[in-house]
């Protein structure tokens, strides 16, 4: 009986660890969602953006696990650089869009812009997938935790950003661009 208790405690502890890791990985999606939410987005777009980011947070760790541990060190640094440059690019494009006044963004979080956004916030999941190196049934639980947490946190960030956008008007894009730019710099200089 005590063996079952220890197994259950071990599984619960592992799940809590995965949820904490998923929350940590999803926090950049939340933060960047705050900035992207300052675009004039409809609820349907916000819903789709959250699903896309969640999907990428499932896909990227699986790709990382498939790539294996032997390239973890080298590619993990590359992923951080790529993510940082993507966020800086998106931030600059939001600045330009705000300064152009009303022409609309150069690259909005729809279509190719959505793919860039989802890729930039999920690159760290690829690195985590590389370092986890786990296989079997637990892989499913791990990537599902990552995907669900990222999706929910993205929705929260976008919805809060959307609310702030209503109060700040045109300055919201400048603020959103600043958030993305700052997170891009943070990624580049934390390496």
TrEMBL record:
Main location: membrane
One GO cellular component, as annotated: plasma membrane
Subcellular location: Cell membrane
The UniProt record lists the keyword Flavoprotein: no
Residues that span the membrane, as ranges: 15-34, 46-66, 78-99, 106-123, 135-158, 170-189
MF annotations from Gene Ontology: manganese ion transmembrane transporter activity
Keyword annotations: Cell membrane, Ion transport, Manganese, Membrane, Transmembrane, Transmembrane helix, Transport
Domain of life, per lineage: Bacteria
Membrane-topology descriptor: Multi-pass membrane protein
Function: Probably functions as a manganese efflux pump.
Family designation: Belongs to the MntP (TC 9.B.29) family.
Protein name, per record: Putative manganese efflux pump MntP
Organism this protein belongs to: Peribacillus psychrosaccharolyticus (Bacillus psychrosaccharolyticus)
Name of the coding gene: mntP
